[in-house]
Specification:
single chain, alpha/beta, 2,3-Dihydroxybiphenyl 1,2-Dioxygenase, domain 1, 2 helices, 8 strands, 42% strand, globular
Length: 125
């Protein structure tokens, strides 16, 4: 249903370095580079970062939350570690998230601009 998502960033090169490292464990790489936007994906750009001059940091109560699907718990662990190594902050360490209806494994990070990014998988066990 959703073709792609995009987020605003204050510094395109800082964000590009962060997302190149953070998205690599999920199999996404930089596919398109333009003066004010960069697209990441597997075969076509599914996730875009867009330069917004003068953009203030995203507030913690903004509600911005993007979730990306991973193939395995190992990818989730690598996503989280890569994000922290690239200057992101943890917003929830990798681990199982049991709920009434569904059990899943996820990790949550905050990028240098304050955007919340999650990676999720649904293991059989």
């Amino acid at each position: 249903m959703i073709d792609h998502v995009s987020i605003g960033v204050a510094d395109l090169e800082t964000a590009a370095r962060f997302y190149e490292a953070t998205l690599a464990p999920l199999g996404l790489s930089r596919l398109v580079t333009r003066p004010a936007t960069i697209g990441f994906g597997k075969t076509y750009p599914e996730f875009w970062i867009n330069l917004r001059d003068g953009m203030a940091a995203v507030g913690p109560d903004s509600g911005v939350h993007i979730c990306l699907r991973a193939k395995s718990t190992g990818e989730i662990d690598a996503f989280h570690a890569a994000a922290l190594n690239a200057g992101g902050r943890s917003d929830g360490a990798p681990g199982p998230r049991p709920h009434e209806r569904v059990r899943y494994y996820a990790a949550f990070v905050i990028d240098p601009d304050g955007n919340r990014i999650e990676a999720v998988t649904f293991p059989a066990e």
